[in-house]
Design a protein that fits this description.
The chain is α/β, with parallel strands linked by helices. Helix content is 47%, strand content 14%.
Length: 286
């Protein structure tokens, strides 16, 4: 469907999503939030997206919350603020839990909620001139909604400094603390993003979805549950169509079919981690 504040384009299995409010430095308001939730739901249901590239139009990736939107919240009741904050949280959860890899193409600035968007990307490539910051505390508020996603990336030590000071920091510092994975010159940004996309397309979609879910599930599991969880996941992958094809291709010294054919096989929309191990041989390649 067409969006007012987002631009989308599909290139094979690659979905390119652009925050399209350059006049407002791609700031987030209630309309952008609703559109991002809707877009994430559509991608989740489609089953044919293999990689997402998230970018911002113009000179800035995202300056965070929209000033006009924040101004309206001053007059909001506590219940109205709860409604807005809940929608904001749902947006980040929807993006964070997409069963496909999300690559962030970050330039100019990623502040507040914009830095939160970087945190929910699986891989972030940033221009070396980009400025980051969790600046909320300087406005008398806090980075509450984005905190679970940011903490999972940068840890408590960096958060204690950056959440409490509200200080802006460089792309290189963002790389050092784990918010960013690759820092490049502006002229190298697009090629670095495309190289990352090419790397991701070398793996099949269900395996990537399972690996992404595994990271979250292992982090939340108790020590006593980890053994059963990881054993169940690898057993299921070994008898899966992708697992069978990947191992056969390795042993036969050839490229797997998802590399040769591009779109094989279609990603299942259900959660692979919830399926449990299947009976041996039930979905081996014929």
């Amino acid at each position: 469907m067409p969006y007012k504040h987002l631009k989308t384009a599909r290139d094979g299995g690659v979905e390119r999503l652009v925050l399209n409010r350059p006049e407002a430095r791609n700031a987030l308001n209630d309309e952008v939030i609703a559109e991002l939730i809707d877009w994430a739901d559509a991608v989740r249901k489609s089953g044919d997206v293999r990689v997402v590239v998230l970018a911002g139009a113009g000179k800035t990736f995202s300056a965070g919350a929209d000033v006009g939107w924040m101004a309206r919240t001053i007059e909001h009741s506590r219940a109205e603020n709860m409604r807005d904050a809940s929608a904001f949280s749902r947006m980040f959860v929807a993006l964070d839990t997409l069963p496909v890899p999300v690559v962030g193409r970050v330039q100019g600035g990623a502040l507040g909620g914009g830095a939160g968007l970087a945190a929910v990307c699986d891989i972030v490539v940033a221009e070396d001139r980009t400025v980051f910051g969790f600046t909320e505390v300087r406005l008398g508020i806090v980075p509450a909604v984005i905190s679970p996603f940011v903490l999972s990336k940068i840890g408590q030590s960096a958060a204690r400094e950056l959440f409490l000071t509200g200080a802006r920091f460089s792309a290189e510092r963002a790389r050092e603390i784990g918010l960013v994975h690759l820092v490049v010159a502006p002229e190298a940004l697009d090629e670095a993003v495309e190289a990352t996309v090419r790397d991701l397309l070398l793996a099949p979609p269900e395996a990537i979805a399972t690996a992404k879910g595994l990271i979250s599930d292992v982090g939340k599991a108790s020590p006593g549950d980890v053994h059963a969880l990881t054993a169940r996941v690898i057993a299921a992958r070994r008898v899966s169509a992708e697992g069978q094809e990947g191992l056969r291709a390795f042993l036969e010294k050839r490229e797997p079919r998802w590399v040769v054919d591009g779109e094989w096989p279609r990603r299942e929309t259900s959660n692979p981690l919830a399926q449990g191990p299947r009976a041996p041989g039930t979905d081996k390649l014929r």
